[in-house]
User: Fold this.
Amino acid sequence: QQQVRQSPQSLTVWEGETAILNCSYEDSTFNYFPWYQQFPGEGPALLISIRSVSDKKEDGRFTIFFNKREKKLSLHITDSQPGDSATYFCAASPNTNKVVFGTGTRLQVLP
Amino acid sequence: GPKVLQIPSHQIIDMGQMVTLNCDPVSNHLYFYWYKQILGQQMEFLVNFYNGKVMEKSKLFKDQFSVERPDGSYFTLKIQPTALEDSAVYFCASSYGLGGSSAETLYFGSGTRLTVL
Assistant:
């Protein structure tokens, strides 16, 4: 059973555009949602995170929008840069040590 | 930033052999994790470890798998015997506190690519 789903599986945008990555979950006990960025040959690194008490979290060009009722969230990357090309994982946790990762979205930003 | 080191970066072994993957976590971290990734896709949780004990494990953490961190040295994942489906990239991570809380970040190593022939 897939607890955290992401769409699209892959996404291509032009430099300067806004990339929107979607995530949904099933477990209502999840209350912490980190997004991880992974470049080829490297491990994932925390990009930005949000707790379920908030509906929006912004950090520079990266913004998370969270809808608790619908169990959905999205990551918006504004003014996308070629250096943003990576795989992005939405993750979720019920505030325990088990962090569940989504299926990932591979983003390509074309110059 | 904090670094998690994984040794080796690549490992090729024959099916049925034993393999040990080594992880040198961030020095003051207390919680340790192993994840499995196939073909650059989903990161699958295997196990977490604290104070010398497994705290939680997934269905992917088969009986052939074991973890330990003897005397504060490497945090290891041992697979004995290996199977073809164990081929994947294994990522180690560590955190100071509860990795699922907004106060604590999981720091990942660069992974060990395991190929079972």
About this structure: Chain B has no helices and eleven strands. The interface with chain A takes residues 4, 31, 33, 35, 40-45, 48, 50, 55-56, 91, 93, 95, 98-102, 105-111 of chain B (CB under 8 Å).
